[in-house]
Write a structure and sequence with these properties.
Layout lengths: L1 H25 L9 H13 L5 H35 L12 H13 L5 H23 E2 L2 E2 L1 H25 L5 H9 L8 H20 L1 H4 L6 H6 L4 H23 L5 H13 L3 H25 L7 H20 L5
Antiparallel strand pairs: 1-2
Helix pairs in contact: 1-13, 3-8, 3-11, 3-12, 3-13, 4-5, 4-6, 4-7, 4-11, 5-6, 5-8, 5-11, 8-11, 12-13, 12-14
């Protein structure tokens, strides 16, 4: 028993440190290589006052650090959002786009790209359309003043299909020489547009939404109980579901607005967390944050450093995520999924 507790403590410490270790090792990888020790010295130089090589300092703080911070936020956000949706709907295949939010945010972004290349306008448009998608899903799912989980999922499918059609319409009318390539590349997901100014727009929504979901992690276990049991506990399930959906929508829409659509993260990482810690959301949520942020940093590093031309993030997440998900299924037998 004591050995098991020690093993769990070591695993907890490792998962907690994974994002920091990923940053230190990955931020120096690229055409201009910087050792992990030198990267660490440069990262802490503003606090220690140590002198650092000017070129290496510029590469890290002006080029790589914004996209590393974005990768951390997106990995954390999509993972915690996916875990929350899977608990909310009691469905292991639920993803951050279950309510059509990601598709709605994508439409908002491509619509803005049709008229401007200003990344801030693109982000704001994506965020607003993501929230509109949630409102549409809630409106469709209400029947006789009530809304069931089944109707919410079906409403999300309808909204997602509608916005996907609108995205296709925008691509159809876009200029094939200039606008269409930019729209297509954006939809495949990339951290290359990361800037400190852009992070100031989207990062607060990710942190606020993720913070709410983190605080509600123990209540997510209650959602698997019968309605009579939850009433006996004095829990208003409708308000809890609405709060979880709103927080997850904020996170998902903000992530999509910052880097485009990134698949598999919100599906794969929560399953990996459950494989390690079981189905208790009090543990799954924090573990998903650590695993998701470290995974996204590694994926972004591979996308920019594996080849001369940057590979879209969604391609790598699918190539890596699909086989790994199959291994998870075979290892667990679907028992914890």
């Amino acid at each position: 028993m004591e050995q098991t507790a020690k093993r769990h403590r070591r695993m907890n410490l490792l998962i907690f440190l994974m994002p920091f270790l990923a940053v230190v090792f990955c931020i120096g990888i690229g055409r201009y290589h910087i050792t992990p020790l030198e990267s660490l010295k440069i990262l802490i130089s503003p606090f220690t006052g140590m002198e650092a090589d000017a070129q290496a300092w510029s590469v890290i703080f002006r080029v790589r650090l914004p996209r590393i911070l974005l990768a951390l936020a997106v990995g954390m956000g999509l993972s915690i959002s996916g875990a929350s949706f899977q608990a909310l709907f009691s469905n292991p295949l639920a993803t951050p786009d279950t309510l059509g939010v990601a598709t709605g945010a994508s439409f908002g972004a491509v619509l803005a790209l049709l008229f401007t290349s200003n990344i801030l306008i693109v982000q704001v448009s994506a965020l607003l359309m993501g929230l509109l998608a949630l409102a549409g899903t809630c409106l469709i799912s209400r029947l006789n003043g009530k809304s069931s989980i089944l109707m919410v999922v079906l409403g999300g499918m309808v909204v997602s299909s509608l916005f996907q059609a609108l995205v296709s319409l925008v691509k159809y009318v876009a200029d094939p020489e200039e606008e269409l390539p930019a729209i297509t590349y954006w939809l495949m997901g990339s951290m290359s547009r990361a800037t400190y100014q852009g992070l100031l727009v989207g990062l607060p929504f990710i942190l606020i939404g993720a913070g709410i979901l983190f605080l509600l992690r123990w209540r997510l276990n209650i959602l698997s109980l019968q309605e009579d049991e939850t009433k006996a506990l004095g829990i208003d399930v409708k308000k809890l579901r609405l709060l979880v959906m709103t927080a997850s929508t904020l996170v998902t829409a903000a992530c999509v607005s910052l880097c485009g659509q990134v698949g598999w993260v919100g599906l794969l990482i929560p399953h990996a967390a459950r494989m390690l810690y079981g189905s208790d959301n009090r543990k799954v949520i924090p573990v998903s944050i650590g695993l998701g942020s470290a995974f996204m940093v590694a994926i972004d590093t591979a996308s920019r450093a594996a080849t001369a031309a940057e590979i879209p993030v969604s391609i790598l997440t699918a190539i890596i995520g699909a086989p790994f998900f199959i291994l998870l299924l075979r290892k667990t037998g679907g028992a914890r999924l």
